[in-house]
Write a structure and sequence with these properties.
Elements lengths: L7 H11 L14 H18 L5 E4 L2 E4 L4 H12 L10 H8 L4
Antiparallel strand pairs: 1-2
């Protein structure tokens, strides 16, 4: 199947698989459905961070200081779209940890 036709879950599973490429087989992000649901939340936040210059963002009525720049958030969005795992893509885990979400 062509990559353009993949759904969000398909892309997540490929990204999870790619996240372990250079780490002795250990996944940087988990390949479970629960982790995928948390990932969706994190990606929503990253999308908001990517398109704002503010130094904070909100989630569940809490305000957080951005730990990822807007530029890095945009790179994460592109990398995720292409299922590419890099040190920049890995920064999505920083946001997940900040929100208390395991991905």
């Amino acid at each position: 199947m062509e990559m353009e036709k993949w759904g969000d879950y398909d892309r997540y599973m490929i990204l999870a698989d790619n996240s372990h490429a250079n780490d002795n087989g250990k996944h940087k992000i988990r390949d479970t459905y629960d982790s995928f649901l948390n990932y969706k939340i994190v990606m929503d936040v990253i999308n908001r961070i990517a398109f704002t210059d503010k130094s904070t963002y909100s989630y569940n009525n809490n305000i957080y200081t951005k730990k990822v720049t807007s530029e890095d958030a945009k790179k994460i969005l592109v990398n995720v779209e292409n299922c590419k795992w890099t040190s920049t893509t890995a920064k999505l885990k920083i946001i997940g940890h900040q929100l208390g979400l395991i991905i």
